[in-house]
Amino acid sequence: MTALAIHPGALGDVLLTIPALRALRVGGARLTLAAQARIAALIAALGEADAAQDFDALRLEALFAGEGDARLPPVDRLVCWFGARDLDFATRLSARVPNTVVAPSTSPQREVWAHLLATVGGAADRRPAAVSEDLLARGQAALIAAGVEPSRRVVVVHPGAGSPAKCWPADAFAGALAGLDDVAIVVHEGPADGEPVARVLARMPSARHLRQPNLLTLAGALARCAAYVGNDSGVSHLAGTVGTRSLVLFAEENLRWRPWSTTTRVVPIDMKGGKKDVTRVRETLQAMLG
Description:
The strands form two sheets. Strands 8-7-6-9-10-11 form a six-stranded parallel sheet, with helices on both faces. It has helices at residues 11-15, 18-25, 37-45, 61-65, 87-96, 112-120, 133-145, 170-177, 194-203, 215-223, 234-241, 275-289; strands at 2-6, 30-35, 51-54, 77-80, 100-102, 153-158, 183-189, 208-211, 227-231, 246-250, 264-268. 38% of the residues lie in helices and 19% in strands. By secondary structure, the protein is an alpha/beta fold.
């Protein structure tokens, strides 16, 4: 049995598919994930898919226009979390692979990861992903290069997000992290996080700076950490996926996108960074670190 899952979304959106991907592989099915190339490669490296496929290479736009043909690999089962609103697309895709499900990537009625799992059926497997020794070594090397001593416990902070509206203020992060003992604070910067990272580093001059590691290295670094704290972002989803004890800050209206990982604690907060939220985040972090 071979299966193809298609999701062209951002990092966090694709990581939310992992319980569904696991259900697709029950019984020994060989699964290919088609997504953005770097994200598909990450999912495969974490052992959650057998092969990675660049979404753009499938040329699915041909199925919308009805001109030319898509480039789909031969598979027995196909699940596409893309294009569900276009009946012509869904019909043409189903004609290529009879055992096809075309479903929306979200649902207003349930958490996103649970919705994705329901589209394929099966039980929820919410265990952390396996992180290989190679990825752990890459992550450790990146942390050492950032100035972290190998023996220190690490707390990684990710102050960025896909939208400024999801970013907790720098003063709030600094206040929540103040007083953490015997840990190295590492501020992670992704490609679009320059401004929030600069603001946090300006308030925490002793913090280390992990600047734009690739996703495989970041997965290994997060798996090495004692704890993680960050906004509603793809990086936060990755921290939970690799089993890091994580504290993720969500606005109430976005809770449907919370991570599936049981090692993640989601804290609904006012994104303005009020004193009560700062105290609550600090106390939660301290409890996580023991």
